[in-house]
Write a sequence for this structure.
């Protein structure tokens, strides 16, 4: 009778104890909502701040490179007959003081192209901000779901340890009554030790995940650990073609590669402009003795002629064209990589969806039914302890696999969100 009560209690604990234990655990601390952590990471993550500051820095460049070079002011003094200041100024028209200003003028169109080139740099930096933001949030979601699984796994392992202890007691009761043997007791004790090892490894892994999560949130490592909400399966409502179109249109890596192609095209145009001369203009006012001579006014125009085209301008243009072709190849490679990664994550979501259904509707109920039948068979000596233990471990393994698959399912959706910019959670 005592043995039967132990087994009944074990079955009830196996079927209902884990969820009850996790409910008690979640009641101790308020669970952190994923949406709130996303907002916090966007505000406090240092990597996102660095990317934003880099973008803000590049935004200051277009006006700088599109502005004419600073003018140069010249003050001259010419003496006659002596190095003394103003020597000959009153009796010689070669002695004078002069004041002038000069300005360099790049060939028409160069400044506009330089502004456009700097603008493209800023646009690339802007896309980098979005890429960093999405990567951080994707990592945040992945770690959040892994912590959720770790918490659930911890509750499962704690419940399993208690159930194994009860199984050990039941085996010991049968052994003392002469219906069992000592090996069954030792097997139960061995499984308890193995579970203790898993519990320790789970706690260590949970500590690492908490450290990574705090880093992404910009929180000090001494802050309290976070408790996650219970997750449920999220359905994928978009087909692959829709997600692929969104990825090609919104993915920051692809957009950044496209901006670099556009930037290199501008660089080619600048290289072509360098085959043409730049100009300079200078105005000079000269004054001698005002009582005897009139002032002189001088205007000079100069040009910087590109004389060494084969050694400077032609290699410059060839380099710009090579860089443009390289950027185009990089765009194609980036687009293919995004498409491939998206396809892999999409298949992972579809596969995990099917697996979750199989676990819920088939494997887990069947394993629990087998375990319940095994309890009765073991009571009536129609099944040995080893077969019962195998059924018990099957239930535990399937339970852990279900929650791990659910965690991986949600993480794959997070990867799709990163690639496409489409919110799925």
């Amino acid at each position: 009778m005592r043995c039967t009560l132990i087994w009944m209690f074990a079955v009830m604990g196996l079927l209902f104890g884990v969820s009850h234990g996790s409910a008690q655990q979640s009641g101790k601390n308020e669970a952190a909502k994923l949406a709130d952590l996303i907002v916090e990471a966007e505000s406090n993550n240092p990597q996102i701040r660095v990317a934003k500051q880099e973008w803000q820095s590049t935004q200051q460049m277009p006006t700088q490179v599109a502005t004419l070079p600073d003018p140069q002011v010249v003050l001259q003094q010419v003496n006659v007959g002596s190095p003394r200041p103003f020597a000959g100024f009153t009796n010689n028209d070669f002695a004078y003081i002069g004041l002038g200003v000069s300005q360099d003028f790049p060939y028409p169109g160069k400044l506009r192209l330089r502004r456009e080139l700097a603008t493209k740099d800023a646009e690339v930096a802007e896309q980098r901000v979005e890429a960093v933001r999405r990567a951080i949030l994707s990592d945040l979601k992945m770690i959040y779901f892994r912590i959720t699984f770790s918490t659930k796994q911890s509750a499962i392992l704690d419940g399993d340890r208690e159930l194994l202890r009860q199984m050990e007691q039941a085996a010991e009761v049968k052994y003392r009554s002469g219906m069992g043997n000592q090996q069954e007791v030792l097997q139960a004790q061995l499984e308890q030790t193995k579970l203790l090892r898993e519990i320790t490894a789970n706690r260590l892994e949970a500590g690492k995940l908490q450290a990574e999560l705090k880093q992404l949130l910009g929180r000090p490592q001494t802050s309290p650990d976070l408790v996650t909400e219970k997750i449920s399966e999220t359905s994928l409502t978009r087909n692959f073609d829709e997600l692929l179109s969104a990825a090609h249109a919104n993915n920051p890596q692809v957009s950044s590669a496209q901006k670099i192609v556009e930037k290199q095209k501008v660089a080619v145009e600048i290289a072509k402009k360098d085959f043409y001369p730049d100009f300079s203009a200078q105005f000079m006012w000269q004054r001698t003795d005002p009582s005897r001579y009139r002032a002189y006014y001088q205007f000079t125009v100069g040009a910087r002629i590109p004389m060494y085209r084969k050694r400077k301008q032609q290699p410059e243009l060839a380099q710009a064209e090579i860089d443009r072709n390289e950027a185009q190849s990089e765009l194609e490679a980036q687009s293919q990589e995004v498409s491939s990664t998206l396809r892999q994550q999409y298949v992972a979501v579809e596969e995990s969806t099917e697996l979750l259904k199989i676990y819920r509707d088939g494997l887990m109920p069947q394993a629990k039914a087998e375990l319940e039948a095994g309890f009765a068979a073991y009571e009536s000596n129609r099944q040995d302890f080893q077969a019962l233990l195998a059924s018990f471990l099957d239930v535990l393994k399937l339970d852990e696999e279900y929650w791990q698959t659910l965690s991986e399912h949600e993480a794959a959706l997070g990867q799709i969100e990163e690639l496409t910019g489409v919110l799925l959670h």
